[in-house]
From TrEMBL:
Protein name listed in UniProt: 3-isopropylmalate dehydrogenase
GO biological processes: isocitrate metabolic process; tricarboxylic acid cycle
Record lineage: Bacteria, Pseudomonadati, Myxococcota, Polyangia, Polyangiales
Lineage: superkingdom: Bacteria
Oxidoreductase in keyword set: yes
Length: 335
């Protein structure tokens, strides 16, 4: 029976990498009935909302979605579709494995994970202009939010055979908000004595990610730090074209790449679909389709190790469709 999965193509390079990923999932032999819904600026022009209710309802009903990036206007305009989706569906854990692919950047051999709190912090959207010329953003930190993200990170570490969780914070300066998050994570850690515990201030964590990333294991951190460290991690393993992500809640999960809509290369046909393909691997494993996930991952490793088919972001000349064809052929190759 086919899985019913909500598909949000997004905009910019979104539809290009989404189509490629659909082909890859199909090559891996997983039947999916994709329920397509649109979000973003074009939808806002037609319906008045960049994220109409039927899109949210579809994700809620199917409990699983694959999503392309959606452009967010800077400064004014509508609220980020991504943030709204994560908050409305309470997708509180943003999981971003940062893993090197063979031959991409030999300076680093990275294998770490960032678990980012996805609904609170400065992304809670509590901003106001308190006086002319004086703006205020409220950083929201709750005991419930901090405890459940730490619990998620420790359970994730256990499930994925990782031995260490590092709590990343800035509780030396934000003694109350980050202090609360740190206390909650420490309390959760007590219940997981088999997992080694690390604590690090966010600026030191940024440096450690560049010098000795694998020392960190699984990072658990608040929203903004996790957002920034994820892009740093992407830079370590070859850029945003590579790194996957998942937004996971108790009732639904949305899988999407770390990268955005890349307006500078949209429509040109040479976006790297690897990040969304790897997000789909996470999705397949979430569904229990481990064989299909393993097949895609093996094929990606083989393709990258051979090094002949590379997209432009990684110094190659392959188009999105060249890369996708080669990947599908590798997945389908009898072993
Ligand atoms: P971006 O990630 O879109 O692009 C940054 C750089 O990385 C660009 O040079 C781009 O060409 C390159 N890049 C990104 N993905 C690539 C890929 N798959 N293959 C090859 N090169 C790739 O970041 P940005 O330019 O800061 O953001 C553009 C828009 O995307 C903004 O409106 C932002 O709000 C939005 N955004 C959306 C999401 C999401 O939907 N989850 C995430 C991040 C940013």
């Amino acid at each position: 029976m086919a899985y019913r999965i909500t598909l949000i193509p997004g905009d910019g390079i979104g539809p290009e990498v989404v189509t490629a990923t659909q082909d890859v999932v199909s090559a891996a032999g997983v039947a999916v009935d994709w329920e397509i819904h649109h979000a973003g600026i074009e939808v806002a022009k037609l319906t008045g909302s960049p994220l109409p209710l039927p899109v949210i309802d579809a994700v809620r009903k199917n409990r699983i979605a694959l999503k392309g990036p959606v452009t967010t206007p800077i400064g004014g305009g509508f609220r980020s579709v991504n943030v709204t989706l994560r908050q409305t569906l309470d997708l509180y854990a943003n999981v971003r494995p940062i893993r090197s692919l063979p031959g991409v950047d030999p300076r680093f051999d990275v294998d770490m994970v960032i678990v980012r709190e996805n609904t609170e912090g400065l992304y809670a959207g509590l901003e106001l202009m308190i006086l002319p010329g004086v703006a205020q953003s409220i950083k929201l930190t709750t005991e419930r939010g901090s405890t459940r993200i730490a619990e998620f990170a420790f359970r994730y570490a256990k499930k994925h055979g990782r031995s260490k969780v590092t709590i990343v914070h800035k509780a030396n300066i934000m003694k109350i908000s980050d202090g609360l998050a740190l206390d909650c994570a420490r309390r959760v850690a007590v219940g997981h004595p088999e997992i080694q515990l690390g604590e690090m201030i966010v600026d030191a964590a940024a440096m450690t990610m560049v010098r000795d990333p694998n020392r960190l294991g699984v990072i658990v951190t608040e929203n903004l730090y996790g957002d920034i460290l994820s892009d740093l991690g992407a830079g370590l393993v070859g850029g945003l074209g590579i790194v996957p992500g998942a937004n996971i809640g108790d009732d639904a999960a949305v899988f999407e790449a770390v990268h955005g809509s890349a307006p500078d290369i949209a429509g040109k046909g040479y976006a790297n679909p690897t990040a969304l393909v790897q997000s789909a691997v996470m999705m397949l494993r979430h569904l229990g389709e481990h064989d299909a996930g393993d097949r895609i991952e093996r094929a990606l490793t083989t393709l990258y190790r051979a090094g002949q088919v590379r997209t432009r972001d990684l110094g190659g000349a392959a188009s999105t469709s060249d890369f996708t064809r080669a990947l599908c052929a590798e997945i389908e190759r009898p072993r």
